[in-house]
Each structure stands twice: as structure tokens, then as C-alpha cells.
Amino acid sequence: MNAEDVTRYLLDHPEYFEEHAHILADVVLPHPHGGRTISIGERQAIVMREKIKLLESKLAELIQFGEENDAISEKVHRITLALLMARSLESLLHSIQFNLREDFAVPHVAMRLWKDGAAHPELAEFSPVSAEWHALAESLTHPHCGVHPMLVSADWFGEEGGRSRSYAIIALRAETAFGLVVLASEDPQRFYPEMGTLYLKRLGELISSALGRYLGAG
Questions:
Q1: CA count, 13 A, side-chain hemisphere, 187
Q2: Residue 127 CB burial class (10 angstroms; 0-12, 13-18, ≥19)
Q3: Low-confidence residues of the chain, pLDDT below 70?
């Protein structure tokens, strides 16, 4: 019999140790963390303690994720209320900028809109953008995150934005794309390609819907 046969036999015949209880006292095993030998019972206790420790670590990780998600959900709730309470396009744009900076701690926020731009030439958000930005917005099915923007537009953020090292680009759309929100940070790990984008996508949908009241996009 090989080791696999012995293992299968013992698993299939648990009564073996009831009939040969003395073996449990006689068999000794090497300690997993030292050179001395221990009984099967001690080894089982060590294994159980290690399993419990691993489960506690996973539970702590799940609790942390839950707390982080709760915090993000609260921020999304606050910006939703702010967007609902806006009574003009100007106040809506201000609320978007303010909440993203203050609640979500995004140091640099830029937005460009190209629907009804001729009606609001005084607003920076309606500054002309190239056809490449239009095409980018149309192609984005999910927010894009990375250490470099797909298209560099440092003038969107002013002098401070030139030091940004990571970006999130969110398309604003109704039936078609009508704008973009770009978030930027000096921290290269703030927005990275592998990060989850669920909340960014929801923010884009909220902002798109709110702007639709004034731009006829929703």
C-alpha cells in the first residue's frame, strides 16, 4: 500500500481509531514549527489554531471591505442629494466639482461637455475639445483608470494638475456620449488599471442623468 491507499482507508474507516485507540497515544509527529515531536492530538490542535487564525484574518479583511464600501456608499448618497438639490446648471456643475473634491478627496476634477455648448460659452466645462476626446468618450463602456491619461490635456487642470500621476476618465452619456469627467491625483496608485470601477461608473450615470435636465441629454 502506498500513502494514498493508507489515507483513503483511514478516511473510509473512521472506526479504525476507535478499535485501535492505543495508536493515537503511541504515534508521534514532528512539530510543524520546531524539531521536537508531538502527539496527534497536539498536532490537530495546532492545525485548528492555524485554520482559526486564517479565518480570523479573512473575516477581518471582509469587515474592512464592508466598512470601505459603506463609506463609499455614503459619499455616493451625499453627492446624489447634492445633484438633486441643484437648481441651475451652474450650481449643478459646482456641486459636482465640490463633492468630488471634498467627499471623495479627488484633488483635481475636470469636466468637458459638448452638448448645447453654444448656449453656455462662458462656462469652462463647454470649452472645445478635439475629435479624439469625442471618440474616446464614445468608446468607453467603463471608466478608464491608469497612470497616464489616454489623451493629455494638462490645461484642463491648470498648473497644479500638471503634477498628476494617475487618472480616471468617465464618459457622460445618454443615448450617446456628450461629455467626460476626468479625475486626477498626484498619487500614482490612486487610480490604477486593475482597480474596481463600479462606483466610478455609477457616478458617471448620476452626473449624466443630472446634467440631462439642463442639456436635454436624459
A1: 8
A2: middle
A3: 21, 24-41, 43, 149-154, 160-161, 216-218
SS3 label, residue 211:
helix
88, 215 contact by CB (below 8 A) = no
CA angle 210, 214, 217 (to 5 degrees): 70
Q: In this structure, which CATH number among 2.60.40.790, 3.30.450.40, 3.40.50.1440, 3.40.50.1820 belongs to the domain 87-215? A: 3.30.450.40
Q: Which residue has the cell 437648481?
A: 87
Provide the residue ranges of all domains of the chain, joining segments of one domain with +.
1-85, 87-215
Nearest to 217 by CA among 185, 181, 178: 178
Residue 102 has a pLDDT of 92
| CA atoms of 31 and 49, how far apart (whole Å) | 14
What is the pTM for the complete model shown?
0.70
Distances in whole angstroms, Cα of residue 71 to Cα of each of 76, 78, 143, 190: 9, 11, 20, 17
Distance in angstroms (rounded) separating the CA atoms of residues 79 and 99: 6
The pLDDT value given to residue 217: 43
Give the Cα separation of 177 and 205 in Å (integer).
11
